[in-house]
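Retro notes, item 3 of 5
We never archived the inputs for the zinc ion complex last cycle. Fixing that now. Sequence and ligand:
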Amino acid sequence: MKRFLLDTHTHTVASGHAYGTVTEMAKAASEAGLRLLAVTDHAPKLPGAPHEMYFRNFKVIDREMFGVKLLMGVELNIIDHRGTVDMEEGLLRKMDLCIASLHTVCLRPGTKAENTRTLLRAMENPYVRIIGHPDDGRYDIDYEALVKGARARKVLIELNNSSLTAGACRKNSLSNLKKILGLCERYGQEVIVNTDSHFPSSVGRFDEARALLEETGFPEELIVNTDLERFQKYIRKIF
Ligand SMILES: [Zn+2]
Ligand SMILES: [Zn+2]
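Structure as it came back at the time:
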């Protein structure tokens, strides 16, 4: 499998439970051989997350550091079963990249039908380009509907490396990811592998995810991480 050049889901000290600065994360990305890093701190509704002013001032940040292109975005919380996210449109428009994720502190798991509909509705938001860690078994999800919905809406499904590491709080991630990958292969849905790093040393480290991709024989042409242009077509921002 070719080298991965991008990591588009990472957190800085601004998230409240992560510990690197933007500059430290960019340096770590450079050292890990990445060409592109996206910083996606948690949106305001997650406890400890920054005020929206943090997101409003991204214009001051260099979009290239240590030879790494930098995107400044957000990991949105889905806050109700209508798929609403916790950022207003005027600010969403300014983000280089928006990931939408389910977090139990922001939305209690519903029935399988509710959870599935919630993610499908979140994907209807045109600013949402990636569904983060859909493998979390605390939310029962119809993965076939999710994958078909993502394909129809041209949204990426995330393979979250941190879900596969020891101590992950999500449930049944390995078996769920095998199901998700099987469906992505069947329907020709592209995936993005992200570290969800909360500390610089894990930026660009995809070992567990790569092992799973190899074990399942997942087709390399459906992984966007090996080519910046394949990722570019999912977002508006030109980097
Ligand atoms: Zn998350
Ligand atoms: Zn995250």
